[in-house]
Amino acid sequence: MNVDNKTQISEFLLLGLSEDPELQPLIFGLFLFMYLVTVVGNLLIILAILSNPQLHTPMYFFLSNLSLVDICFTSTTVPKMLVNIQMQSQAISYAGCITQMFFFILFVGLDDFLLAVMAYDRFVAICHPLHYMVTMNPQLCVQLVLASWILSVLQAMLHSSMVLQLSFCIYLEIPHFFCELSQVLRSACSDIFINDLMIYFTSVLLGGGPLAGILFSYSKIISAIRAISSAQGKNKAFSTCASHLSVVSLFYCTGIGVYLSSAISQNPHSTAMASVMYTVVTPMLNPFIYSLRNTDMKRALKRSLGRRS
User: How far apart are CA 126 and CA 130, in angstroms?
Assistant: First the structure.
């Protein structure tokens, strides 16, 4: 690519999930519905936890943070997509694209770290119940959430600042519904070897690290549950982490599915469709998973809704 074909760009074009005009109203309605369900569902979880003193425990403190992150996570991508469909436009400014990419990386990282922190919380609760309140004290809980934010911000700043150093070509079509890092890199005219290398490095370190922590925690949890003699005790112990395990499985399975689809399929639109699962569907399902499988949460939600009706 010649230097003459490079320019100071002002915007990218997000091609979305489909370029068929007849499908746009259906996509708009579906994503608007999922976005509203995500925001309302996670807000209800947060309000229920804040308004019920019985839920002022480490587990629900982490859950309220996860719900807040899920709202922000979905709000990073879906509203811009809805606006573009409504305005019949595909454009997103260069600054807007970098900003969207920054916050997307930030909130993905936060989801990852918070799920690992919640697994550690369940590990302490089940394997060391007598020391739970001492170990999971308020100071430690705040420090764990703060550390998750710091690491996620640093990761997002690293990737975004590296993208800012790249040169881009004149025609910048991104076959996605948001500015996903790897798709933005494919639009660059510069050498992206260092960027790709840094993605693999941070994925292993900051993605694989929390996953390893989750697997270690649950290996200890399963061993502890198996050592319980009564069936009732086993069911009670497992019920305290069943919701979290479901959310972890959904998050990582959809994430791995996106990675495999991008590695196997040559069609970028199939990768965009797979991305819908962990960017939109997973945050939408999390409140249902936690409320349907948790008696305390269902009770708190009924009180909260009853108080407002």
Answer: 9
pLDDT tens string 167-204: 887 768 888 899 999 889 988 888 999 999 999 999 88
Q: Would strands 91-93 and 173-174 be described as parallel, antiparallel, or unpaired?
A: unpaired
CA diameter of the chain: 74
Token couple for 66: 């996860």
Work out the average pLDDT over 252-256.
83
Give the closest residue to 111 by CA, choosing from 247, 256, 295.
247
- Residue 138 sits at the vertex; the CA angle it makes with 135 and 141, to the nearest 5 degrees, is 75
Q: Residue 41 contacts by C-beta under 8 Å, 6 or more apart in sequence?
A: 284, 286, 287, 288
Nearest to 42 by CA among 295, 308, 306, 289: 289
Are 275 and 262 in contact by the 8 Å Cβ rule? The answer is no
Give whole-number Cα distances, 245 to 7, 69, 203, 221, 240, in Å: 48, 18, 21, 11, 10
Q: Note the pLDDT tens digit of each residue in 26-35.
A: 999 999 999 9
The predicted-structure confidence for 59-94, as pLDDT tens digits, reads as follows 999 999 999 999 999 999 999 999 999 999 999 999
DSSP codes, 228-294: --SHHHHHHHHHHHHHHHHHHHHHHHHHHHHHHHHHH-S-HHHHHHHHHIIIIIHHHHHHHHHHHS-
Residue 139 carries which side chain, given as an amino acid letter? Q
**In this structure, what DSSP letter does residue 206 have?**
I
H-helix or E-strand containing 33? helix 24-51
Single out the residue of 149, 129, 160 nearest to residue 240, CA to CA.
129
List Cα–Cα distances, 265 to 260, 269, 271, 273, 276, in angstroms. Answer: 8, 9, 8, 12, 16
Structure tokens at 74: 């979905």
Q: Are 283 and 42 spatial neighbours (Cβ–Cβ below 8 Å)?
A: yes
